[in-house]
Amino acid sequence: MSYGAPQRLVIIIQASLYIFFFSLCISYAISFDINISMQKMFSR
Fold it and tell me: Which domain range does residue 31 map to?
């Protein structure tokens, strides 16, 4: 069993997980901003 491939696979999995959580945080922030702007529009 070689050590090169599994280590590379772990790095790829960690990178994809970080990207996934990052995109989740961005989408939550965008939806939060949209909710605030919609509430401001409707409160007038």
Answer: 20-44
How far is the C-alpha of 32 from the C-alpha of 23, rounded, in Å?
14
pLDDT, tens digit, for every residue of 15-25?
A: 999 999 999 99
DSSP category for residue 3:
S
Q: How far apart are CA 40 and CA 30, in angstroms?
A: 15
29 occurs within a structural domain: yes
What does pTM read for this prediction?
Answer: 0.57
Q: Which two tokens stand for residue 27?
A: 């989408």
